[in-house]
Amino acid sequence: MISVEEHRATVAELLTPGRTATLPLAGCAGLVLAHDVRAGVSLPPFDNSAMDGFAVRSVDVVEATEDKPVELPVTGDIPAGRTDVEPLLPGTAHRIMTGAPLPPGADSVVMVERTDAGPGFAGGDAGRVRVFATAPPGTHVRRTGEDVSAGTVALPAGSVLGPPQLGLAAAVGLDRLTVYTPPRVLVVSTGSELVTAPDPLRHGQIYESNSIMLLAALRALGCEVRTLRSVADDVGTFREAVTAELAGVDLVVTSGGVSAGAYEVVKDALADAGVRFTKVAMQPGGPQGCGRWEGVPVVTLPGNPVSVLVSFEVFLRPAILAAMGHTATSRQRVRARLTEDLRSPVGKRQFRRGWYSPAVGAVTGEVGPRGGPGSHLLAAFAQANCLIELPEEACEVVAGSEVDVILL
Ligand code: AMP
Ligand code: MG
Q1: Which ligand lies nearest the alpha carbon of 259?
Q2: pLDDT in tens, 244-267
Q3: pTM score of the predicted model
Q4: Closest residue (by CA) to atom 5 of ligand 1?
Q5: HSE-up of 111 (CA within 13 Å, CB side)?
Q6: How far is CA 363 from CA 335, 357, 388, 397, 406, in A?
Q7: Domains along the sequence of the chain with CATH
Q8: Nearest CA, atom 16, ligand 1
Q9: Which terminus of the chain faces fewer neighbouring Cβ atoms within 10 Å, N or C?
């Protein structure tokens, strides 16, 4: 038996490094930037007004008060987007809107609320404006390069491209980014007992569920997914079905057919073809395999649905995230107080489905199991929000003790 960490490392090694591609910004959401990105322009690109109001020379309004306003002729009008701004002459004001370029000569902006609005502020009719407050140099002025300086690194390699990062890339004038692309995954469910709904079930058959779970879990990471939903337990059928779909696939994930029984189709088909089958010291999810088949990485999961999803969480999710350039590949972990006694097999790490109630104030969070340890108990998983991780040496874990919880 190998440890959870050993198998996790083997799977992670199989998948790195990821592919990169240069994509339009709209296709980059959630992906990781592969290279540093430098700003082509400064942000803001020019000194501009932070307010609707009047661009002035600060010295011209240095005496302005509510009681003794300073009156200035309004000699210009600068809406946002104006590119031919005239200089501001001493003793005058230009009406200016938020985001409009400051006229040469002006060093501050008086917001409209500190003026009598000037005749026809909304209508745009230049006239005179009475200013009720001083505007020291720089007031309501957004300086060139205050946010980003042209030529500097705006987004470092490794940035996860969420809304603000993509907004910044667009703001500095980029339309494409080079990102790590998510793997294209082929999910293969094996088992001669598997039926795809809505076909009717005969006694001895079950509805196939692993492929949809894996599809959902993989899609949540951004992967492209194709599924083969019920490949019979026959080596020839398995090889043929999978090879027919291998083109353009970065990773094959199978479920079923890897335990110690007879008719272990995945093991029988791949054991001599580059995939190593092992037992990992964990429950559920002991029987695992991983390697390359025809050059394509293959991870073989056991068949029981709970084992599949736990294996995905423990091995595949971190490996895929790493291959996609993420450095934060683990789920959030917390310690919580157990609400019930649990038993765990000595020598194996146990992952139990649980419900975690977060800490309130100084009281530690609590966690209780959902369902038993059985790896077929999918309904219990559907009611869980976490995995309770009990270490290899644990045997009896009593209510009230603190345990590790992986938040899903
Ligand atoms: P195996 O590892 O192939 O022996 O499968 C272990 C258990 O998981 C058996 O009870 C299978 O019927 C069940 N199983 C395997 N694959 C699937 C699947 N895709 N959907 C639902 N149950 C499955
Ligand atoms: Mg099977």
Answers
A1: 1
A2: 999 999 999 999 999 988 899 999
A3: 0.91
A4: 303
A5: 7
A6: 12, 11, 19, 20, 19
A7: 4-17+182-323 (3.40.980.10), 21-43+153-180 (3.90.105.10), 48-142 (2.170.190.11), 333-407 (2.40.340.10)
A8: 303
A9: N
